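Hi team,

Below is the intake form for GGDEF domain-containing protein from Sphingomonas tagetis. Please confirm the fields before the structure is written into the shared record.

FORM ID: S-0412
PROTEIN: GGDEF domain-containing protein
ORGANISM: Sphingomonas tagetis
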Amino acid sequence: MTFAFVLTVVLVGTRFVDTFLIATGALGITASLARLGTVAWFRREALADALAPARARRIERRFATTYLAFAACLGLFGPYVLRLPDPELHMLVVSLMVGYCAGAAAGVGLRPGIAIPSMALAITPTILTAALSGKPVYVGMSVILAALLAGGSHSVGARNRTTTAEIGQRVTFGSLARQDGLTALPNRLALREWFEAHFSLADGDSAIAVHYLDLDRFKPVNDRHGHPAGDALLAAVGARLSQSLRAGDIAARLGGDEFAVLQLGLRHPGEAELLGQRLVAAIRQPFAIKGEMVEISACVGTAITADRTRDLEQLLMEADQALYRAKRRGDGAIEHYAA
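The structure came back. Fields below:
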């Protein structure tokens, strides 16, 4: 588009030269180069997976400013050329406008807040100038250009709605793939992703505790009340675990009646002991399941580390070893991993 604009300005300038043409051409070229520079400067950052939404909006606003500035220059340039007594140049500038609108719809069509205003800003003055000329051919041309603008705007909006719906579906499916269907807690995959995203970025002086929980007396509930009651009990346990956590920690269901809790930002091992006790106390409280009060308990095995090179699976295995010792001690026991 930059090349097409420069070529058009040069061709017009070979027949008519004045201050307005030079100024408009210079502004348009400057705006277009600024747009290309913005794309080149922020491209790597904009494509990064870790780009924050607020930063993305700032980059988009900078791009939109340069994009709309070029459209405004076209909006000034088009009517200027249509007023010149040269039908060949009129044909040239109309081709430029149509090409610009097609490029905007294709290039930034997923950003209707940029695409539609830029198309309208660029071509509307040309439409009005042609319509007010009073010449039948130019009036007809203005009608055609207006129809193209309306159709292009509609197409951009429809494409945006379709793409937004598709992205929403992918996000939903991605969330479902990382969520335990019974308890609505994160599953093992989500737990691993959380660990990798948070532990490496945590304060270097802090540690993480991995708590491995296993329910006691859960099987008798299944045998006596049936699997639906067991499922309801697991869902209730998941809710209580979530309510027992500090902000920034995470609970997940690993499978069956086994759960894991990751406690980030520990300054002292005693903090892990306190959370373990809180989790055990929360599960020990009776549950109302299918109109009956059900009592269970849980054992907890805990592994603690400040080593950022450690893997979650290793820590879960260590916590599981501690859990095995806790279960040998009996209901509600808490054990810490000892190498």
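SUMMARY LINE: The chain has a mean pLDDT of 89.

Thanks, M.
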